[in-house]
Amino acid sequence: MAIAGDPIRMEAIEGKGRALVSARPLRAGEVVLRESPILLYSALPFISAKKPRASYCYHCFRVINSQQVTTACGASSSHFFCSPNCLSAAQASSHPPWVCQALDGLQGCPSFHIQNEELQIQVKFLIAAYSLAIRSPSEFQILLSLQGEACDCSSRQEVEFLHSVVVSVCPNVAGLVGSGLELTASLLAKDKLNAFGLMEPFGGERSVRAYGLYPKASFFNHDCLPNVCRFDYVDGGCGAGNTDILIRVIHDVPQGRELCVSYFPVNERYAVRQKRLLEDYGFSCECDRCKVEAGWSEDEDVDGEMEEEEVGDEEMEDDDDLLDDEQMYGDEKGGSNDFPHAYFFVRYMCDKEICGGTLAPLPPSGDGHSSNVMECNVCGNLKPDDQPGSSSV
Fold first, then answer.
1. Cα(115)–Cα(42) distance, rounded to whole angstroms?
2. Domains, the chain, with CATH or none
3. Could you tell me the pTM of the whole model?
4. What region holds the SET domain (predicted)?
5. Dihedrals φ, ψ of 229, to 5°?
6. Could you read off the pLDDT of 148-184 as tens digits, one per residue?
7. pLDDT category, 103, cuts 50, 70, 90?
8. DSSP letters of 271-287?
9. I need a surface site. Which of 5, 27, 205, 369 has the fewest CB within 10 A?
10. By the 8 A CB rule, do 293 and 273 touch?
11. 210: closest CA among 37, 52, 34, 31?
């Protein structure tokens, strides 16, 4: 049950399990959740066939530019921090000496000299998860309570490989890990179904700089036309809290309505969305939008197989995977008999090239009035709302 003034509450919904719903009427732009991660780890692989990527602080994951003075970790020459404060905070939490040594040890581990970047990142997650088990057993139990069972993760062969690598570089947690292949498999499933990607700065190829586990936010279900969306400001401001995520209301929502985010850009085609949801999250979507698009002819949707993708909440896809303007807006922007949800794309989708983000109003003012400025949750672009007032969708 929600406490007085709490904007959201958890509720069991038939066919979906636990979900988050509005505990009271919500105004467009309202922040319904701000949450810090219980676990955060780098998404940058040790060995990459791709071009070099930006450097980040190993604690707050802000961009470190080439002119910036950095602080190196005393236990390693390969882990840098943007300030002594970040180094101290990391050493007291996520980056104790044994974790630092384990991460360095991965680069010298013969079995880890692989080109599969996803496996490299999964090993980083497991080290972070077992570190959490040692420093905060209560938060580790929260991690274990999240959705995801051993059967939801990778193949048994991959689990055994990842487990052996972690044990080989983390001898001091071998007793904790033991022969617990099932625990390793369960942890990998928690990560697969619940991790949020903190994206690299907008402007080029969209990829992930770090992954975080946010227990409350993980209960937001998916809808292909969401009524809330997620914002993060990793490079903004100073001090702690920059890796928090904020969930903001896109448009007015009545009391008792389920609150849903989209797990990927909203302009993906029906077949792409269904394939991704089934493979990555284990379900087929039956939202109102999917029911409409399921009846479209094949030439209106994706032909052939979708290319393998990098993981990331807002990563951009090939043009063939995206809806074109006519499919999103109809023959004239603002309406379509074939796609009655076209209004959503007109008002709540960023029109900046190669963005694909979702727009939500800035938070309401102190007197409760909704803002008439829309913010994109991907590129950060601000634009005036040319349709004053908001209505529930």
1. 17
2. 1-36+221-294+341-392 (2.170.270.10), 39-196 (no CATH)
3. 0.85
4. 6-264
5. -145, 165
6. 887 766 688 888 888 888 888 887 676 665 557 888 9
7. confident
8. HHHHHHHHHHHS-----
9. 5
10. no
11. 37
